[in-house]
Design a protein that fits this description.
Number of strands of chain B: 0
Low-confidence stretches of chain A: none
Radius of gyration of chain B: 18 Å
Helix content of chain B: over 70%
Number of strands of chain A: 2
Strand order of the largest sheet of chain A: 1-2
Largest sheet of chain B: none
Number of helices of chain A: 5
Distance between the termini of chain B: 25 Å
Order of helices and strands of chain B: HHHH
Distance between the termini of chain A: 33 Å
Oligomer: heterodimer
Helix content of chain A: 40-55%
Structural class of chain B: mainly alpha
Shape of chain A: elongated
Low-confidence stretches of chain B: none
Mean pLDDT of chain A: 86
Strand content of chain B: under 5%
Mean pLDDT of chain B: 81
Order of helices and strands of chain A: EHHHHHE
Structural class of chain A: mainly alpha
Number of helices of chain B: 4
Radius of gyration of chain A: 14 Å
Largest interface: A-B, 20 and 17 residues
Chain lengths: 81, 150
């Protein structure tokens, strides 16, 4: 159940990477399995460094792993104001 | 459960086990205005030794890695423990001054309490911020939907 604005495809990417386990991903990026679970479920938004490390573990660009979906899309980006 | 959670559960259980003894001691000392003698004194000493033994066991457990690959604590654990430490610090700032004036309120300006009651009171008072710390750690793991490093 994702509740924040940062969505992720970690679960899908893990399965595309030969059904990589959460523990294996946790070992690759140096966190606990509980943290990977929390990130997957959208309960925890990782730091920028950890987000890049996770993307690196999947050999994917960060935007393929994490997507920002603003709660209020009606607000225009700063460049358009 | 990761190591931080296990430590929190372990400490919370230890604290809650010893809390009734401290409450009883406080009741006996300040409400009944009696002191411990004979078997009771032995029991109080045993509780102190159990608390110290628990802390020692925790120290050994903390220092010992469960496996060579085990991560000590990641950024989420540190964020959670930092918030819990702040809550415990605030609780200690409130608890210790309050507890320090309780004996005066109960026994009066010229009253007296046994000398051993001071460490007893301090240990008992430290149980409150300790319990708040452990509860805050566990609550954040279960309920917190937090952000990463700001």
């Amino acid at each position: 159940m994702e509740t924040n604005e940062l969505k992720n495809n970690i679960r899908r990417l893990r399965f595309e990477k030969g059904e990589m386990t959460q523990q294996r991903l946790a070992d690759l990026v140096g966190v606990t399995r509980q943290t990977i679970i929390a990130i997957e479920q959208g309960k925890y938004s990782p730091s920028l460094l950890l987000a890049f490390q996770i993307a690196h573990a999947f050999s994917a660009p960060i935007e393929a792993v994490f997507q920002y979906e603003p709660e209020n899309p009606a607000l225009p980006p700063l460049s358009l104001i | 459960m990761n190591r931080t959670q296990k430590e929190a559960v372990f400490c919370l259980a230890s604290g809650l086990l010893t809390f009734p003894m401290f409450a009883y001691g406080f009741y006996k000392l300040f409400i009944l205005k009696e002191t411990f003698t004979g078997l009771e004194r032995f029991l109080v000493l045993t509780v102190f030794i159990l608390v110290l033994g628990t802390l020692l066991a925790l120290l050994v457990w903390t220092l010992k890695r469960q496996s060579p690959r085990e991560v000590e604590a990641d950024e989420r654990d540190k964020l959670i423990t930092n918030r819990a430490a702040m809550a415990a610090f605030i609780a200690a700032c409130v608890t210790l001054p309050v507890v320090s004036v309780i004996p005066r309120l109960i026994v009066g300006d010229n009253g007296c309490v046994p000398a051993w009651s001071l460490p007893f009171i301090i240990f008992g008072a430290l149980l409150i911020p300790g319990t708040i710390y452990m509860t805050a750690v566990l609550a954040q793991y279960f309920f917190r939907r937090g952000d990463g490093d700001k």
